[in-house]
Amino acid sequence: MKKPVALIIDDNDGVREALSMLLSLHDIDAIDASGPEEGIAALRETEIDIVIQDMNFAEEKTSGAEGIQLFKAIRKDWPDVPIILLTAWTSLETAVELVKAGAADYLGKPWDDHRLITTTNNLLALQAERRARQQIQEERAASRAALADRYELCGTVYQSDPMHEVVSLACRVARSDVPVLITGPNGAGKEKLAEIVQSNSAVADGPFVRVNVGGLPSELLEAELFGAEAGAYTGLNKRRIGRFEMANGGTLFLDEIGNLSADGQSRLLRVLQSGEYERLGSSVTRQTQVRVISATNADLPGMIAEGRFREDLYYRLNVIELQLPALSDRPGDVPLLAEALVGEDHTFSAQAMRMLEQQSWPGNVRELQNLVPRARVLATDRVIDVEALGLRSLETSALPEPTEADIRRALAQHHNIVARAARELGISRQAFYRRMVKYGLHDGRDGKPE
Question: N or C: fewer beta carbons within 10 Å in the chain?
Fold first, then answer.
């Protein structure tokens, strides 16, 4: 296992030697530099896990100005590397400001060995954990990109692991001709997943016929699926082509399959087994070659136990099952979906986006699809705020700490006018400015942006 590497930047030879020895006794490799330029060069040449830097680099210097400049240079180009500040001279106020700006810790000289090693080991553990998460995220992003390059995803927007798993499975099984059953709550996107299966299937160029089984009266369902001859029932004056006939050579999507009547289940089972059916009012047996995709939010195994759904039909439909997660189970997809739905001419305020992320979304993606157009209409300008969403307001104190992305987004939306950006996030101007310094969006000197 590779040892972690610490960079020690100090103009005192004795300090560098003592720190190097201390770190080596705890299985930490050390690289030392006598000043800022040498330290920056080391960072460019070697993967550094932690920096321990002095604040003054000449005997007559006690202001810490050089250390502040070095700290900002490291934070700018290596924002994720933890930095421990080490000095005997710089004021406590300076130290506090630098810690607010992102320094990991501040230790005075002479340092306490136990505290320094404990702090270093804790920071290295957090750094290793962060890098592991970053690697996983990069691998997942690469996997999503590879899937999008290889398959037609029909504009599906997601980044969550649960959604990636089901979309990946849909793509893998698409080329086979076996029936697919898509399960999941209402509004989760079952029809979109059926489109992905059809678009990547061997019959992608064939017809894709959709029918909502649950939306048809039982007396019309048979004619809808299998067709009917003129006069087969009152009011039918001409031949009616059924959905199986329309979908011949392609895909038939049967939504809400759990609402199919007992007679409809029997007829459907027959056509799945043999490909044969008759139009209503006709004795002529017809053949069809159709890939069937069905969907339901019902508990079909429970319905089988109650005698309301045929077990043999269930196993015919459920050769491959794709289980769609609820939107509440993939909250990370909410911002992507919201931005995709709102279009390029509108955007969400940071507070509005956080409110969207906190919702439980019982209606799933469909609920979000209905909310966004309404919010566009109610918004007074191109930025959709909390009021335009029409959701229940949350107390400002209950809102999470604004992230760097929130700060950047608010600044961009308000043309770097801090007062307006702070008002949008529900924090004071001073608190907003402190976060700008923390995230390296301002150097903390005079001339604060307005």
Answer: N
Taking only the tens place, the pLDDT of each residue in 324-353 is 999 999 998 999 999 999 988 899 988 899
CA distances from 55 to 23, 66, 188, 416 (A): 20, 6, 55, 31
Token pair, residue 60, equals 């007559």
Put simply, whether the predicted model's pTM sits higher than 0.85 gets the answer: no
Contact 169, 190 (CB under 8 A): no
Binned at pLDDT 50, 70 and 90, residue 450 comes out as very low
- Answer yes or no: are the C-beta atoms of 349 and 339 closer than 8 Å: no
CA distance 317 to 265: 11
Distances (CA, A) of 374 to 157, 217, 355, 379: 20, 32, 16, 9
Q: Which tokens belong to 248?
A: 């011949």
* Range 78-92 burial, b when 16+ CB lie within 10 A, else e: beebbbbbbbeebee
DSSP label of 443: -
Place of tokens 């400049």: 69
> Each residue of 107-154: pLDDT tens digit?
778 888 998 999 899 889 888 888 888 888 889 889 999 999 999 999
Q: Give the chain's end-to-end CA distance (angstroms, integer).
A: 49
| Radius of gyration, CA atoms only, the chain | 32
pLDDT exceeds 80 at position 60: no
pLDDT of residue 427: 76
Measured distance CA(106)–CA(86) in Å, rounded: 6
**CA 290/CA 211 separation, integer angstroms:** 14
Confidence of residue 394 (pLDDT cuts 50, 70, 90): very low
List the structure tokens of 322.
């794709």
Its sign, for the CA torsion 163, 168, 169, 174, is positive
Tell me if residue 84 falls in helix, strand or coil: strand
Which domains occur in the chain, in start order?
5-131 (3.40.50.2300), 151-325 (3.40.50.300), 329-438 (1.10.8.60)
Q: Is the peptide bond before 373 cis (omega within 30 degrees of 0)?
A: no
113: Cβ contacts below 8 Å, ≥ 6 apart: 22
Task: Return all residues near 275 (Cβ < 8 A) that are at least 6 apart.
Answer: 287, 288, 289, 290
Two tokens, residue 43:
């960072």
CB atoms within 10 A of CB 2: 7
- Please give the Cα distance from 104 to 82 (Å, whole number): 6
CB within 8 A of 218, min separation 6: which ones? 261, 263, 264
CA 376, CA 373: separation in Å to the nearest integer?
5
Compare 86 and 38 and report the one with higher pLDDT.
38
